[in-house]
Each structure stands twice: as C-alpha cells, then as structure tokens.
Amino acid sequence: MPWLIPSVIATAAGTAILAACYTYVYLLDRQKYLKIWAISWGIYLFRYAFMLMMLVRQKNAFLLMGNQTASLLSGVLLLYGSYLFIGRPFPRSFVYLSVAGILWILISILGGFSFLLMSLPTFSFLAYVYIWTGIVFLKASSSEKKEAAVVGIGFILWGIHKANYPFLQPVAWFAPWGYLFAAILEFTVALGLLLVYFRKIRNELEAGEAKQFEANQILNGILSHTHMQTVFLDLKFNFIWVNQAYADSCGHAPSFFPGKNHFDLYPSEENQRIFQQVADTGEPFFVFAKPFEFPDHPERGITYWDWSLAPVKNEGGEVTRLVLTLDDVTERVQAERALRESEEIFRSAFITSPDSINLNRLEDGVYLEINEGFTKIMGYSREDVIGKSSLELNIWNDERDRDRLVSGLEKSGVVENLEAEFKSKDGRVRTGLMSARILKVNNEAVILSITRDITDRRRMEEDRERLLTAIEQAAEGIVITDVTGTIEYANPSFEKISGYSAQELMGKNPRILKSGYQEDSFYAGMWETITSGITWNGRITNKKKDGSFYTEDTTISPVFDPAGNIINFVAVKRDITHEVRMEEKLMQSQKMEAIGTLAGGIAHDFNNILFPIVGHTEMLMEDFPEDGPVRSSLTEIYTGALRARDLVRQILAFARQEKNEIKLMKMQPIVKEVLKLIRSTIPATISIRQDLAADCGAVTADPTQIHQLLMNLTTNAFHAMEESGGTLFVRLKEIELGEEDRINPDMAPGAYACLTVADTGMGMNEAVMNKMFDPFFTTKENGKGTGLGLSVVHGIVTGMKGAVQVYSEPGRGTEFHVYLPVIKKMPEERYSAAPDPIAGGCERILLVDDERAIITMEQQMLERLGYRVTARTGSIDALEAFRAGPDRFDLVLTDMAMPNLSGDKLAVELIRIRPDIPILLCTGFSETMTEEKIQSLGIRGLVLKPIIVKDLAKKIREILDGVR
Predict the structure, then answer these.
(1) How many Å is the Cα radius of gyration of the chain?
(2) 673-725 pLDDT tens trace
(3) Which residues pair with 307 in a beta bridge?
(4) CA 85 to each of CA 198, 441, 474: distance values in angstroms, whole numbers, following the listed order
(5) 374 near 356, Cβ under 8 Å?
(6) Minimal CB count within 10 Å: which of 197, 408, 654, 878?
(7) How many CB atoms lie within 10 A of CB 939?
(8) Residues with Cβ within 8 Å of residue 239, at least 6 apart in sequence
(9) Cβ-contact 789, 773 below 8 angstroms
(10) How far is CA 362 from CA 236, 276, 300, 595, in A?
(11) CA 404, CA 446: separation in Å to the nearest integer?
C-alpha cells in the first residue's frame, strides 16, 4: 500500500483546512452550530493522526481505540451541529448509540476482538445516522434547496461508504482509494454545509434588508406624522433630517434645516456641552420638563420640553449619528403645576387658614375635624371639641342661628354668608360670617363650614379705610405698581403732579412720564436696586401730560408678602421743582457773591495804584499853564485815570462795596431820561417802544445806579440788534410776588417794580446765559465792551434786595426782567442848598498809609493846601508819634488796610489816648466798614480811593469845621 500514507496525509490536510475554515467562520458569526462543526472537524483530524501513527509505527490497541473513538465523536458532533443548523432537535437515541459505541470500542480493545468485530457497530451507527441525516436534508423545506440537496446526497453517500469500511480492511489495494473517496465525501459534506450556511446568511440578509426597508418605511411614516419631534444630527450637530412636527414647532419647512447647525439656530452653551458629551461617551442623555424660550419667537414665552439625545452606533460601536427627540410638555407641566398648586391650596386652606373650618355631623352637630383657625378664634383645642356637639360646648350665642344654618342646608344643601354670633372658650362673643355646605363622607352627611371672624375684619377695614384716606389726602404723590412696573394705583396728589388722571394711569408703565433727562442706565440701575429688595431714593426729572418738565424727589420701596417675595412696588413722590429752582438760584447768588468778593479785592489794589496817578496828575496840572504843551498830555493822563476810577467804581458796585446816595425814588423819570439819551445814539433801524405804568410804586435806590443799570441793559439790547435792526421794548409795572414766585432765596414776598428791557435781536444760547453775569465775560468785539455791564447790573439789583430774570433763545431775542422792592409810601422830599466850596487850611495833620507812593503824593497834596503834615508809613510808628504828642495834631488821615494794626484799630487806640481827635478813614475797598460802624468807633468820616484833591479838601474841611 504505497499510496496509503500519502492519501491519509492528504485527507488529514483537507480536514485541517476544514477545521480552520469553520473556526474562522465561527469567529465571524459566533453561531453555536459553527462552533460544533469546527470542533467536529478538529476531532476528525485526530482520527487521521492516530491512523498515521499506526501506519508509521507498529499498530497497537490504544491507537486503534483513539482512531475509532475520534471517528465516532466527530461524526456525532457533525450531526449535532447540522441538526442545530436546520433547527431540528437532535435525536436522543443518537446520543445513546454513540455512548454505546464508545463503550463497545473500549470492550473490543480490551477483549482483543478483531477489527471487523470492533468497528462494525461504530461504522454501522455512523452509516445509519449519516444516511438518516442526508434524508433529513433532502426533505428540508427551505430557500437553500440546491445546497441542502448536495449536503443530503453527500451524507447518504458518506453513510453508504461508512457501511463498507469494516469490509475494506482485507482489500489492501482499495485502502488508499477508500481514504481518498472518504476525503472527497468529507469535503463535499463540509463545503455543502458552508454553502447552505452562506446561502442562509444571504437569504437572511436579503430578508433583513426587506424587513429593514419595510421597517424604515413604517418608522419614517411614524416619525413623520407623530407629535413627537425627531431630529437626526451628525457629530458636528448639523441637521440631517427633521420630521414635520419639529419643523412646525420651529415655524419652518422641513427642507429648511438640513445642512444648518443646531447651535447656530438655537445657541446654548449648556446644551452644546450635553451634545458633545453624548457624542464623546456614547451614553444617551434624558431630561424632563426643561424650560426653553424660542429666541426668534419671544411671544411664545417659556415652554417646557421632555427631550432625549441618543447616539447611533455602527457595528464597531462607534457613534456616527445623534437622534434628538423632543416633546412639548408645557401644557402637562402647567397642568401638573396647577394641580399641585390646587392640592396645596386646598390642603393648606384647611390646615392653616386663619378662618375657622370644621366638619360636623348633620344629624347631631358633633365635631369630626377642626383646623388651626378654629382653635385660634374660639380658644378650644382639638381635644376639647372632637366628639362633642356645638350645643354641648355652648358655642352658639343664639341657638336660632344654628337652626337657620341647619334649615338652609336641608333646603338647598348650601348656606352662604350667614352672620352669627359665637361664644369662645373664654366667654367672649365674636361675630362670624359663615358659609357651609353638605358633603357625603363615607356615606354619612356632614357639614363643611367656614367661618370668618369679621370682628377683626371690620376693625381692619376701618384701619384700612383710614390708611386709604391718608394716602388719598397725602400731599406727596403715591404710586403702587405690580412686580413688572405696571401702575395699579395713583393717589390724587400724583394726578395733580403728573397731570394724568387715575384712569389714564391704570395699567400703564411709569415710563409714560419719561423726560429723556436720565439715560437708560439710570433706570436700569434703579430697577436692579428695587428688584433686589432694596429701597431706592433719588431725584428724577419727569414730563407731565402737558409736556412740561418737573423734578421729583422719589423713594421706591419693594413690598413683600409673608414668604419674602416681592409683590408690589410703592413710590412716594414729592414735586421739588420749586426747591430745585431755588437751589439753582442760591448757587448762582453764592457764585456771584464769591466773584464780587474777588472783584472787591482787585478794586482795592487797583485804587492804591490809581490814587497816586490821580493825585500827582492834579498837582502837575496846577503847575503847568493850560496852553502849555505838557498840559494836554497831563489832561489825557488825568482823563484816563478818571475813566479807570469809574471802571473801578463799577467793579465796586458789582461787589456791593461802593457807597451810593440811596433814597426813595420813582423810576419813571429816569427811564424816560435814559430812553431819550439812547434814542439819540442808536440808528433809526431800531425802534423804541415803552410802557411805563404811572402807578408803579417807589423804590429805595441810588438814581445814578438806576441810570447806570438802564444804560447797560439798553446798550446790550442795541448791540444785539445793531446789524439787523429791530425793536427795543421797555416796560415798567408793579407786580405782586408770592412765596413760590421768588427768583432767589434772598427775596421776600411782596410788591416789586418789574422793569423789562427786551430786544428782538440774535438772542443767547444756554452756555452764554450761564456766564453772562460773570465779570469781564463778553461776546462783543474788542473795544465794544468791558464785560462788566451785566455784572454791574447784577451787583446793583442784588444790593437792593432784588433779582434779575432772563429769557432768551437764539434767533428769538432776549428779555431782562429786573425786580426791585416797592415802598408803598413816599416820604416828603426835603431840599437843602448845596454847600460852598471848601478851601485849604493851616491845621496839623497826621497822615498814615503803608503805601509810600500814596503817602508821598498825599503829603504833597495836603501841603499845597496849606496843611502841616506829619507822614508815617506804619501804623505802629504813627501811634508812637501820636502818643508822644497828642495835642500836636488837629486831624488824623489814615488808610484802612495796613499790616500790624489796621486803620479802624489804630483809630480806637488814638481815641483812647485823645477822645476828641478827629479821624478821617481812607480805603480803596472795605466790605465791613459802614457809616454806622465808623460812627460807633468815633471816626468822623470815610473816603474811598482814589479821591481827587477837591473832594479830599472838602471832606477835611467838613470834619475840621464841624469840630469847631
């Protein structure tokens, strides 16, 4: 048998390939029958291994037993896998026969039986089961008919071949061919089974695809028409597909979404993190009743959604898609919330209601249950009343009230607003308002009654009525809004302040009063404050119904319910428009006063400069002839110095430090005089109109200042109309000003002369009006104004306890209104003859001034007048000189502002040494030196620098002659 070993090896190699093939297929599909087949072919491979060892080595019983056992086991396992494959139960008799066959092989080997005797049962059993299995495959009704027929025929042929195995042993020449034929049958069966398997798999795939297509059609129909909103997204969260429900909810067609990014349409950092987490982890996400607000449909408000995000994975477990499902549960959430609220309301209504709520049996009135309100109102504990009737407890103050209750319930089952009196445990009688109805509880008629203690309610109503009356009659405006700022109440004072009626304000937002003075950030800060539970107060400029503006001092307070939630806002408003105006006027007055003080200080120094110039110029003019060449230059210097002096006096008038001739006078003659003068100086293109009331009362003023005031105002009006022409209008009338009409805080209520100077010129803007009274501020060209005109006007008027009011708009002219206090009664005028000019003298004068230039000039001036002068540049030196010889001097002329010892204090010391010494005080500026004060100090007179020679000589003679 030379071909036996190669044929066995070839057959073993084929069997190994089959075992490997089935093992590989099993690893792909993991079906049990594939596993059994792979094991079967692996065991069959051992049969050939035992056969080769018997051929190569000496044949022994153990190798023969292994060969036969492997053949038997592999055959049984092959059949077991086939029955699993075709879905039929493996015949239990096959198991019994295979066990019997293995035992027979063992017995044959141990008993030394012949090969034929040993193998005949085994191969007969295998032949039987192979042929039987082949017939089963041929009869199998499946879509794999052809492949199953090949397997069936293969099994039958293999079974026939197994039947002749024991008989082939004597025929040595047939053994190699027998093994080759067996190998062919093995491969035929094995490959046939693979073909049947793959055909089955293909058919299952086709059937699965058909079912999948059908399922997809069904699923698409369900998803397209279900109310559940469904979305397919890629891993970048771009839309792949949406159903009609989702498209309808978002207000777009389904074709709108594919290709667009979910978070471009609906931005949400929180949701984007959730989506990314599902994509990264593959774990689905669920959320229930999540609130959502459509960014492009704010009118829909807050909605609630159940939604889930599930990953779609491929065969490798990788996430490839995301499925988003959403269900609008807003109605359910609202219903659940309403149900919970309702249940909570009813539960708490019984337990915690301040009203008395109780259940009683209808037939005898026995208490079954009471609430806390019952115990608080009636004073009884639960143990006191349960199981007892109202009659036993003597609760009814009048039992007829109970009879009326029972009668009403028996008649209609309901009693409403029955007023009755009850006696509490401590014996006090309280009045209650009772409502009751009959209920069935466990088939028993019971009375559910709710009784409100209206004794306290009436007291509260009275208190509330008083409070409402106080609010209604309060001087401050009171407004109550809800938490959104909608007005719910406004008292009459606020109606008066705003100009709106209560009906017009109800349901409106306070922004209808918005004036535009405050920025949006102001209101945002206010709203943030009050919504955080903090009271806000401040000042707001609002607009009335008629369009006018007013300023209010406002306090807005949140109102809390017992749970600490804000339920309302209360605003208390006070119209402070008048106070604000008065504050502004006071600030302006203080500003002008400060500027006046500064101007006075400047005037003092300027007077000290001017005084020597005026004095020396006067003396030089006396020394040179009038027709000399130097005299004309001196005249120009003197004229310029006098102009400078007048300018300083205007500054002093503005600073209210200039001494003027104050008297009671009527303004009409001065107004007419000024208008005649101004008429001759202005062009004919400007017309003048006047309206001077003859009955306008007198004022206390300096005529020169009134003249100056009018000249400044009319000159300003002329300059405003110089190029375009126009009308100058002057009016004088008497008016009455009340407390609220005052222009500045210093004004007292009463009668005022109102002088109006108006023009139709270019007008002024707000910036110019804010600075028009500032000294040296001017809008005129160089040479046309000093900037002091209106400053002087302001100083004159303020010094007379009056006020100036200005109205002007660019292009619409300007009106100045000057208010001066009117004196009702005019005293009789007294006339005195003018005094004769006063010459010089020979008296001795002590001259004191810390300015060397001034004292040198004064000394020369006085000595020219014949006086004998002792000059001192220091007040201490002057005091020492006077103390050394008090009787040597007839007059002391001293400056006011000096170091170490001022002029007034020097005068006090001099008078202390010699009480009758005449003293003349000279100053360029003093806001504290008045006629009354210098008289109280014993000073005989006061002169203001710079003073001309004749005026100084006159004043000295008046004092010296007065002493005599």
Answers:
(1) 62
(2) 888 878 877 888 899 999 999 889 899 888 878 888 888 888 888 888 888 88
(3) 287, 326
(4) 12, 69, 100
(5) yes
(6) 408
(7) 24
(8) 231, 232, 233, 257, 258, 259, 260, 261, 262
(9) no
(10) 71, 66, 51, 93
(11) 16
